[in-house]
Specification:
three-stranded antiparallel beta sheet, about 425 residues, Double Stranded RNA Binding Domain
Length: about 425
């Protein structure tokens, strides 16, 4: 008996026996709909059979907008006719109330996944970040976030998933990197909320690992050895960049990306434009006499070189060799300098700490140090408060000497009873 004949014969409710006996079509698929008692059958409910013999229950309906839809309920015999019909009844009630059940499935299927969110972060957000920060974020994403969560739907990631990832990275022996991963995820989900991919941030409230603040700065002897190494370093352009870092306390990106237009050497001022500073605000920095002399010598040498090569001088203070752009990295040069000067566990950024330590030892206040470093928040400068230990200790020793009489004729005897 053909399926067409069955459709004419079985003008009654579908049963498991009927569905089981349905012959497969020669090609494609055919659908036999529920019939018989209108009080028991469900309009649009039927069973679809393919040429391979597979059977599945379907539900056809029309939305309020007039769009025809077909939703698959489930396969036979995993779903019985009775169970499938009850599901179809519930779907019919939803449709009559204006709900489109297939739309939810389509939305679920088309919901953005984490790899898509990461891709949009790369195109819409990452270009606005500083190069070093962007590189660090990208490293965490490639190593941990994408492999662990890349195939998950954005809306399905839970706080427990992020906490589990944080513990996994911590267990790998990189607790600071684990914290960084949570920070990156928090930003990703903040953007997901802005882009209407989900309504909350599951990275919020994750307990971070304790991070001991880094207080590394060069001692007087270390600073002397570094200056001596700079004198004999084969790449004097990189050496001059390090000298300017020491003389100004500027960030690496600010120095390497500096242009001559930013400097007024006659007035002795470096005006860092907002686009080049971490705080995105213009920062005016007075230059010391040694800094002005260094910059003057660099500029004169660059102009002589340009004349010899019969070309215009680069607008950058530290241009890349053979190109028009600025230097972007001196990591290898710094490693060589540290080896030559026997400096252990010193980063380029620690030169900024060293600059602050010299200012503190000279008795300058935290607000003054913060202004020179370009801090906009007092709390940022407070990290250098420990640098006042030495001058404060010297001051209290002076008081102690006076009180105990060890300070000479001006001393005073302390009497106890």
């Amino acid at each position: 008996m053909t399926l067409a004949t069955l459709a004419q014969t079985y003008r009654k409710l579908l049963t498991d026996a009927i569905v089981r006996e349905l012959p497969a079509p020669a090609s494609g698929n055919k659908i036999l709909y529920d019939g018989g008692d209108p009080k028991k059958c469900v309009t649009g409910f039927g069973v679809r059979i393919t040429a391979s013999g597979a059977r599945a229950f379907v539900f056809n309906y029309r939305t309020l907008a007039g769009r025809e839809r077909r939703l698959t309920i489930g396969g036979f015999p995993e779903w019985s006719v009775k169970a499938a019909r009850e599901k179809a009844k519930a779907l019919r009630r939803d449709v009559d109330n204006g709900y489109d059940p297939l739309a939810e499935r389509i939305a679920e299927r088309e919901a953005p996944i984490m790899s898509g969110l990461i891709a949009r972060w790369r195109t819409d957000h990452a270009p606005r970040k500083r190069e070093r920060s962007r590189s660090e974020d990208e490293s965490v994403i490639r190593q941990w976030i994408a492999p662990e969560l890349g195939n998950r739907k954005v809306a399905e990631v839970r706080r427990s998933d992020i906490d589990r990832l944080h513990r996994k990275i911590t267990g790998a022996g990189t607790p600071v990197r684990a914290n960084r991963a949570v920070t990156v995820l928090s930003k990703l989900f903040t953007l997901a909320m802005r882009w209407e991919m989900r309504g909350d941030n599951p990275a919020s409230g994750i307990e971070r690992n304790h991070e001991e603040p880094r207080h590394r700065y060069l001692s007087g002897d270390e600073l002397r050895r570094l200056v001596e190494s700079l004198t004999v370093h084969p790449n004097q352009q990189a050496a001059n960049a390090v000298r300017l870092l020491l003389l100004t306390g500027a960030r690496r990106s600010e120095v390497l990306g500096a242009t001559w237009q930013q400097f007024d050497l006659q007035a002795g001022v470096w005006i860092k434009p907002s686009a080049h500073t971490k705080q995105k605000r213009e920062h005016r920095v007075p230059l010391s006499a040694p800094a002005r002399q260094l910059l003057t010598e660099i500029k004169m040498a660059a102009e002589r070189h340009a004349i010899e090569k019969e070309r215009a001088a680069s607008p950058y203070v530290f241009p890349i060799r053979g190109g028009d752009g600025p230097m972007v990295e001196i990591r290898n040069n710094w490693a060589a300098l540290c080896e030559a000067a026997n400096l252990k566990n010193v980063r380029l950024h620690d030169l900024r700490h060293t600059y602050a330590s010299v200012l503190a030892s000279a008795g300058l206040s935290l607000p003054v140090i913060g202004a020179l470093l370009g801090h906009t928040q007092p709390g940022t400068t407070n990290r250098y408060a420990h640098l006042f230990d030495d001058p404060l200790r010297a001051a209290t020793e002076r008081v102690g000497a006076i009180v105990t009489g060890a300070g000479g004729e001006s001393g005073a005897e302390v009497i106890t009873k």
